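Narrative summary of target 7.
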Amino acid sequence: MRLKVYVAGKVSSNSVFGTHDWRDKFCKELSLKSGIEIVNLDPVRYEIDFDVDHKDSKFIVGKDYFLIKESDVVIVNLTDDISVGGSQEMLIAKYYKKPLIGIAPKGGKFNKTEKEILGKIYKYYIDPFVSVSCDRVGENLEQVAGFLKEFFSPDKIKSISILDDSLEYYNNKSRSNA
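Modeled conformation, tokenized:
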């Protein structure tokens, strides 16, 4: 099996990975662990190839849209320093109905054993924007490799309808509590 993968996450060399080209190593490791040939649709590589003017916002955003649309799966690396672009890429994946896998390390800000909110303690807490948007959420590369091995059937992949579904759920639940 061969999968085109778009990995969303920090581009900056100031990321937790310490380098802008971390996606290459990530995809190689994922390929080894999953036994699947991974084609890295790296947005940074495309910027180097095109000698991109970073003030050309529409080109930057359009490039990411294009790569996400061309991918078979989107993996979002949910580090504590994720950028606004990474969260937008999650919704873009849903717009194009792409399988979205989140990597949320245990103990990070998106995946906690315990989280206190307004005096209530929640056990095994996954951030709501992560759990609603992602088709699968794993803690590490091994879990993501397992998700890729089972790959998703198109009827089980969430789409942009998660927005309307969540709004309808909220409206129904808030009316019943009124």
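The chain has a mean pLDDT of 88.
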